[in-house]
Write a structure and sequence with these properties.
The complex is a heterodimer of chains A (170) and B (273). With 170 residues, chain A is mainly α. Chain A is built from six helices and no strands. The chains are: A mainly alpha (170), B alpha+beta (273). Chains A and B meet through helix 1, helix 3, helix 4, helix 5 and helix 6 of A and helix 1, helix 2, strand 1 and strand 2 of B.
């Protein structure tokens, strides 16, 4: 039930992220909603759930892109796992902490993805444009996380409640 | 018992890692055919993408009328003048066409067969910032296959890299992985057009011959040599020419003729016959 609900959230995020063109473009970059939800789930639910949801969301996106299938899943999983582990020591209620944690997580996942692509033989031109895009996506995801954290936390609580209810009532 | 279970878990982990590395490696190369799972996933997501793309387009159009009313009036006047100029050109071109047909007949030339075009709606774009691709709502079922050219009335858009039953992914001409044969319209010199990795949405033209001449303002069209794009389709306009190392060669920065951020419908060039 929990996984199905998160699956639906990822599908909605992916459809929104890939609709267009120009689609959802803010300040010249495309926010990575699937990655953002995976990172937030790691922050809210802890490292294990974060890793599972990260892998699931990343794989959904990889299957749609059709290239380097599994790489995005691994990159998102690692970032969500890292954020889940770091989240235990951080005060998540603080806006700035949340912003910088998501910024760091987004940068790590995107950088890992690019390094993975380079490792599998794709020439990555490490031009200023790449760094600008990386930072742009990180900042944008950080900003969106400020708005999205509470609704996702509320939704997560409801999902857990329904899950428990379903288990008890059969 | 616990040791045995742990051993199995380790073994399973290793197998999963090998499968994952194998999948990433296999899918890192351009594949003309995609797996059933990818196709089904893409086709399942397509209706949702279509609805969201149309909703976004509707919202943009609805708000743009109010935002650009002054601009629209000015543009209308400009277009009226342009229509008059173009009408004059059409009369002149019709004369040239007739003359061309007479000459072709006289020289026994085989005229170029017109290509069959398929109209497709753009329903999505790459979810990642690192690839320039779009998704169209036509796939295998409509005769679209990998390697086919995609154009608009303004110019080239890209090539189909793979198709599912109902959708296809098009690699845009501005992607750094894309390469197209081009021709400088003024001089007839051949150039190679690639996506510029340093300037988002721009292309780079590099000369194929030693004496190639390119100047700012030159129009680049398809050469037709690659057999992907039909000949003489607009690629873009040269906006800057930069010398390369030791000034032995140059690279021309090309602004595409097509506005990729406003693509709604495209034409897939189907093979003759």
């Amino acid at each position: 039930m929990r996984y199905a609900c998160y699956g639906l959230i990822f599908v909605a995020a992916l459809a929104l992220q890939s609709a267009g063109p120009p689609g959802l473009v803010l300040f010249g970059v495309q926010p990575q909603l699937v990655l953002l939800i995976a990172l937030l789930s790691g922050m809210i639910e802890g490292p294990v759930s974060g890793a599972i949801f990260g892998f699931m969301g990343g794989l959904f996106q990889d299957l749609l892109t059709g290239r380097f299938i599994g790489l995005g899943a691994v990159a998102t999983m690692c970032a969500a796992l890292g954020l889940g582990l770091a989240g235990r020591r951080l005060y998540k209620e603080n806006l700035l902490v949340r912003f910088f944690t998501i910024l760091g997580g987004t940068l790590a996942a995107q950088l890992l993805y690019l390094l993975g692509k380079a490792a599998f033989g794709l020439a990555i031109p490490w031009s200023p444009l790449i760094w600008k895009t990386l930072l742009g996506v990180g900042l944008l995801n950080g900003l969106i996380s400020i708005v999205l954290f509470r609704p996702l936390m509320f939704l997560n609580r409801r999902i857990i409640y329904w899950d428990e209810l379903l288990k008890r009532t059969g | 018992m616990l040791e045995q279970l742990l051993r199995w878990k380790i073994l399973l982990g290793i197998v999963l890692i090998i499968v994952l590395i194998g999948t990433i490696h296999y899918t890192s190369l351009t594949r003309p055919k995609i797996s059933f799972l990818e196709g089904a996933w893409r086709d399942a997501l397509a209706p949702l993408q279509l609805v969201l793309s149309r909703a976004q387009r509707f919202f943009r159009q609805a708000t743009s009328v109010f935002r650009n009313i002054g601009d629209l009036q000015r543009r209308n006047k400009e277009l009226e003048t342009l229509v008059f100029d173009l009408q004059q050109k059409v009369f002149s071109l019709q004369n040239h066409k007739r003359e061309n047909e007479w000459l072709r007949e006289a020289l026994d030339f085989v005229s170029d067969m017109p290509h069959e075009l398929l109209v497709a709606e753009v329903i999505g774009r790459s979810p990642s910032n690192w690839e320039s691709t779009i998704t169209i709502n036509k796939g295998h079922k409509h005769g679209v296959a990998s390697g086919m050219a995609v154009i608009t009335n303004a110019g080239i858009v890209g090539t189909v890299i793979n198709s599912s039953l109902y959708t296809s992914i098009v690699l845009l001409a501005t992607d750094s992985q894309s390469a197209t044969g081009g021709l400088v319209q003024s001089s007839g010199d051949l150039v190679l057009i690639e996506g510029d990795p340093s300037n988002a949405g721009m292309m780079i033209a590099t000369p194929l011959g030693r004496d190639t001449e390119v100047e700012e303002g030159d129009l680049i069209v398809t050469s037709g040599l690659s057999r992907i794009y039909p000949k003489n389709i607009s690629v873009g306009e040269v906006i800057a020419v930069e010398p390369r190392e030791y000034e032995l060669s140059f690279a021309a920065l090309v602004r595409p003729s097509v506005n990729f951020s406003r693509l709604e419908y495209v034409l897939v060039v189907l093979p003759d016959g």
